[in-house]
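Sequence decides. Our protein:
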Amino acid sequence: DRSSHELPRGSETQIDTTLDGEGIEAAIEGEKLLKRVRRGWMWNQFFLQEEYTGSDYQYIGKLQSDQDHGNGLVKYVLSGEGAGTIFVIDENNGDLHATRRLDREEKSFYILRATVVNKRTGQKLEPETEFTVKLHDINDNEPHFSKEVYTGSVPERSDIGTSVIQVTATDADDSMYGNSAKLVYSISQGHPYFSVDPNTGVIRTALGPGDMDREQREHYQVVIEAKDMAGQRGGLTGTTVVNITLTDVNDNPPRFTQSIYQFRVPESSKSGSPVGRIQATDRDIGRNAEMYFTIVSGDGMDMFDISADKDTQEGVITVSKPLDFEKKPSYTVEIQVQNTQVDPRFMSSGSKDMATVRIAVEDVDEPPLFDKASYLMEVKEDAAVGVAVGSVSAMDPDGARSMVKYSIDRRTDMDRVFNVHPGNGSVFLLRSLDREEAAWHNITVTATEYNNPRQSSHVPVYIRLLDINDNAPTFATTYETFVCEKTKAGQRIQTVSAIDADEPSTGHKFFFSLAPEVPHRSNFTVRDNGDNTAGILTRRASYSRLHQSVYLVPVVITDGDYPMQSTTGTLTVRVCTCDREGNMELCNAEALSSSPGLSTGALIAILLCAIILLMIVVLFTALKRQRKQEPLIISKEDVRDNVVSYNDEGGGEEDTQAFDIGALRHPDAAAALEESAKQRRDIIPTDTLVASRDNGDVREFINQRVLENDCNPTAPPYDSLATYAYEGAGSVAESLSSLGSASSEAEQDYHYLSDWGPRFRKLADLYGAEDSDFS
């Protein structure tokens, strides 16, 4: 019997019939010859509907093999995508089921493999065969637009049907199966301004140019629907929002906000000063609203300018030329405004607007006005003091015509060379001039109103000094001239030229000649070359430097200007020994000096010797004064580097070993002690010194020490301080020391302490009491 596998109802795929037993045997026999095994079963695919909602497993189909004889020895095995999880097979009868709900949009088909094995041995009875399970689509997905919100724009006043934007929607359902993914576009909001193509989703304008005006409405919101199932009932729908903006075109001309404008401007306003602003409006925006202004007529066309403020689109009127209230107090101009860019589709070239502007000039108190911007004056350099150089003139431009006074800004004439008459403006000299010192003088003259000194103006005055011939010519440089002992008459030994501080208008012309006082038989002569130079020539064939080593040649230099000026320059000519080529070899030493006497080297040598001798004398004197004296402090080091401190406390009245006061009482004995170099000062002398109550010897001793230190010429070179102080005598208490007492052990009477006054009352109470008071 022939066996086959079952398919689900509605399946459109035909399945090949499997082979029977005889066919299998024939195939085995053929395999030996052709090396090919033919399968016992074959199929291509199963079909399964997506989104199954039943509670049981969804039945897909049945697999059955020729090797299954119904005896339970055959086992069906399934492998591949989802085998065992999504798809299960009954291993006994080959029934294939889906275990869960499947979505074609997630995965549209699955590839599985099936085989038959022997339950007992596990051996495959047939080769593994691959088959496909495809999912049938249902309309379970609504269309989705690529954007939730679209943004589009279209120029205002566009023609009907102008494309704005295209929207696109997609459907996840199978477009190859039925109409589940066939979409149709429609507009649900946005009528009657826009329409949408049902197939392409292109949105277009639906009204004419007159109805799409940005100035009336600029923004629109359109809602577009996309419906599957080709728009039929039961189809699913998706929507999106499209925001459409009308872009501006230049369809409106600018208009002035008022027809007449009035402004006031002071007559003192400088060029470029603002007068006022005029405003024009344009319903368009951006570049379409840009405008420019022009002055087309009026009596102020040359006096004022107008420009557009790029930020505010206002017309700014400015002054272009100086204003004068006295000449013209008011102006009227016609101003035109128009767009910088005109769209010929909507406006003609005559889309302009006009306005009238009236400008009143305000009178202000102006400073005096000079009749020239600057003055140039000339004066000869030999002009006398008080001579007028020129004059300046200024006047008050106001109607009052106030008087004007003149003065010179002394910051421009620090030397006070010039002055100006305060009433008529005449400039005259205060000091003599010299063109050779300063050829030009630049001063500033100030004109000030008498009634209002704050109103003043300034003008530069340039004064040029005219040259006169007041300087004589001189040699151009200092010439070092020599003549060889062996030469020839008429030999040129020097060419001289001249300079002159003056500057004649025709140029310099100099004449050279020997001075008239030169003897007729002179040693040299002067030849004028006629080109402002002259040659010095010899008149002898030989000269002797032993006989005369230096010659002085006086040359008279005369200029050619009027009045003629001349000077005599002396040329020094040395006589030298020369070689055959005429080069100087040796000249007398006296000829090298400009004046007779000792040479410079000799003078320097004598000066050095005198300086050395003076230094020796000073050094000897200083060494002689450096006599060695007894140091103030016996130390191996410099006394200036030591500080000797005595911090030991005295022993009181009974301490007679610390210091010998007798040295102060008996100066003669102290002097004897000083002569003994080996005797220490802190040891009591052998002779008994009796202290005297007379203080005159102490004063004399101290005064003598002070005088010795003041008059000592061999004092140390470093600073030292010797202090001698004498308290003097006459104390009411006299001496309180016990050193002058005959015996410190004797009883003393302290009653005299009560006579010393209230300051010693406490001491008198302590020592003046009777012994019985303490018993």
DSSP finds six helices and 42 strands in the chain. The two ends are 169 Å apart (CA to CA).
